[in-house]
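Quick log. Single chain, no ligands specified.
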Amino acid sequence: MTTLVRGTDTLTRDALTVLQPGFVGTTAPDWLLRRIGEGLSSVGLFGRNIDTPEQLAALTAQLRAERDDVLVAIDEEGGDVTRLEVRQGSSFPGNHALGSVDDTDLTRAVARELGRRLAACGVDLNWAPSADVNSNADNPVIGVRSFGSDPDLVARHTVAYVEGLQAVGVAACTKHFPGHGDTNVDSHHALPRIDVDLATLHARDLVPFRAAIAAGSKAVMSAHILLSALDPNRPATLSPQILTGLLRQELGFDGLIVTDGMEMQAIASTYGIERGSVLAIAAGADAICVGGGLADEGTVLRLRDALVDAVRTGELPEERLADAAERVRDLASWTQAHRVRGAVSGPGAAVQEGTAPGTDIGLVAARRALVVTSGERPYAPMTGAPYVASFTPVANFAVGDETPWGVAAELERLLPGTRTGSYAEPSVDAVLAAAGDRGIVAVVRDAHRHPWMAEALDGLLAARPDTVVVEMGLNQAAPRGALHIATHGAARVCGRAAAEVIAGA
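-> predicted structure:
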């Protein structure tokens, strides 16, 4: 048994301070407000918490009425992973689209505008950007969330994104350290293992994180991946060698280390969220993200009590928990200072040219990201309402299945009467029957990862060579069809940009 230097109340407050929980609903429940009063310093928001910008602003004001320096975090990457526009689709293309354009000024402007919209709603910590180098094209969870497969390209766009967010007072949380790009397993479901040597790690995966740290990223999020060259026993989130030895000491990061969601199966199924949280703080993490799946008061109390008990039994040094809590408070002070300066300066004072409210910077970026390849004959834009066949894979957990994607809605706007159908297996005959004599637009997402999609396209193009193909994931397969459009992401603006080309708008 260890003797506590600090009082029980202080210990309990520190344990609450390092938690970043979620909740259910579009207003804050009473239990959450009570815990904020007792020391909870951060709250995580998800799509279920957001209806409109006005509602979100009212929610964050409700939270700050309890504590004016509470950190309000969100997982808003833009592109495929959006919470602000979870039911509409994002107004901003994702990282892969920005990386394909490779204009860091554009990436910075997109991040700045996205950050401005977050700040206007009272959100001040964004669990973004993804700095993963997508070296494995079959990666089931990163893909278009990455700027690309080249470490230097990913590094320069990660820096631009961090700079854009933080210029408007939204703290960036660069993820998923030390790099989730070379995995073929989704850590939401199981523990990915990466068996590369240290030379590869330093030359590839760590390059963007070094750059983000040098650019002043306020936070870094750990990955639930087993990196055998650094720690063959524990995933990065729970590894002192990786969080303290590599990230803190070797790379010199002095900001906030946030864990990925602790209820993800890579942690929960092996360690449980209580022990996992204790091990994470002991390893060097400062904030425990939980709430994507477990979003109730009981979860908060279980994690609080697990941390307090670990200190009392000597498993978790009290000084480590206190240090973690202090880092949370330091970041809260930084974001609070930016909010105060923004309020004093007045609306729009810190907004640079080209990123004013209502700007179409996201659509501009989506248009620039398109790669359009014509077939053997020159393409004539469609003038009649087409049939859109969307070949739909199972959405990964990070993206979710509630966010619409595709081109049908945007084509309907340009070509009224457009019809659509969604297919989860080869259904060539069904597509042909539904299309009739309409032109066909086949929409796919990561066709190279789904043999059934390739099979469906083979059959469809054999029957209807005039089919237009739109790839809204990684563009790995060879272009085919009367027109092939690679959007490099499935955000709403990517669909709009593709629809404009199809209709000649």
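The two ends are 72 Å apart (CA to CA).
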